[in-house]
Amino acid sequence: MDQQTTFFIRYLPMRISLMSKETSVLPEYLGSTLRGAIGQALHHNTIAFNYLYNNRTLSGDKQDIVNPYVIVPPAFNETSFHAGEELGFQFFLLGEAAQYARSLVNALHDIQKLKLGASRHPFILKKVTHSLDQRVIWQEGLFNEVAARSVIVPYQSLSDIRRLTIRVHTPLRIRRNGALLEIIDFPTIIRNITHRVEAIAMRYGGWVDTMEIDRLQTLASEISIIQSHLNFKSMKRYSNRLGKKMDFGGLLGTIQFEGELTPFVPWLYAAQILHIGRNTTFGMGRIEVEFI
Q1: 175: enclosing H helix or E strand
Q2: 232 and 249 in contact (C-beta within 8 Å)?
Q3: Could you check whether 8-152 and 155-291 share the same CATH topology?
Q4: What CATH code is assigned to 155-291?
Q5: In terms of pTM, does the model score above 0.90?
Q6: Is 55 exposed, middle or buried, given 0-12, 13-18 or 19+ CB atoms closer than 10 A?
Q7: CATH 3.30.70 fits domain 8-152
Q8: Which residues are registered as beta bridge partners of 272?
Q9: I need a surface site. Which of 169, 210, 234, 287 has the fewest CB within 10 A?
Q10: In 76-205, where does DSSP find H-type helix?
Q11: Over 90: is that where the pLDDT of 265 sits?
């Protein structure tokens, strides 16, 4: 490991290909639908389910227990699928959660029994590939252990960055004192990214320089907002655990910052993979950063 890095995390990025067995209409945002279906399919494997899905319950219902995976669902409004059409999404296993890749694939194979959405549309697993090197991990019942290899979350540095734009592609949910924030500043973003990296590294394997986190949070207060075009998108999801619909909205759009941004670059690159905010397991808080 490069001694100049300030964090180190591994992850297994997988691209999942499902095929619709009939004409299917699903919700506008599939993160919740996919997470629920995979969780139900995984439930029979107690060890894998507890490690991936059940950390909060097993930790005494603490609010901020991070789960070791991220779902990256299809884009908004990809809701209609004809028979034989592909539903593609990504599933990232973080840190030591990669050991459950085979268990996850087995659960995905069982989705055809559970079906998707309120109308219970049937889908079948067609293929699982490594998102980066494109090696086939699973196809036609065969699991390729060698292809299911973890890679390092990139630690990417750039010099002389004075301005950047953050594009929020899926609803960003950050709470403070129990309330969802509708205005986001740079210290809030950096605090969220650094805490998330630290939580993943400490719980699921990795390394992080906590002194650097303290330094970044101090520096972040010197960064100013140039313009913000973030708007709140209202959404609801049904919670099987609670038996009711819940608010699922968050911020979408763009926000631009200015200042001495170079020290924050590696963390912002990592955030594009790890997401930020709450409900990242549903694919929430997916950002893209443009450096100027």
Answers
A1: strand 175-176
A2: yes
A3: yes
A4: 3.30.70.1900
A5: yes
A6: middle
A7: yes
A8: none
A9: 234
A10: 101-109, 111-114, 186-204
A11: yes
**Structure tokens of 93?**
């296993």
Q: How many residues does this entry show for the chain?
A: 292
How high is the pLDDT of residue 246?
Answer: 67
The one-letter amino acid code at 222 reads E
Q: What is the pLDDT of residues 213-233, one digit of tens each?
A: 999 999 999 999 999 999 998
Strand pairing category for 175-176 and 224-233: unpaired
pLDDT digits (tens, 9 = 90+) for 84-116: 999 999 999 999 999 999 999 999 988 877 788
Contacts 24+ apart (CB under 8 A), 105-111: 105/137, 105/138, 105/143, 106/45, 107/38, 107/41, 107/42, 107/45, 107/48, 108/16, 108/18, 108/38, 108/41, 110/41, 111/18, 111/37, 111/38, 111/41
The label of the residue with tokens 């394997």 reads 205
User: Residue 95 has which token pair?
Assistant: 């840190």
Element (H, E) at 255: strand 250-258
Helices (H), the chain: 31-42, 46-53, 55-58, 101-109, 111-114, 186-204, 210-220, 265-274
For the chain, the structural domain boundaries read: 8-152, 155-291
d(CA 74, CA 272): 16
Of the chain, the percentage scoring pLDDT greater than 70 comes to: 92
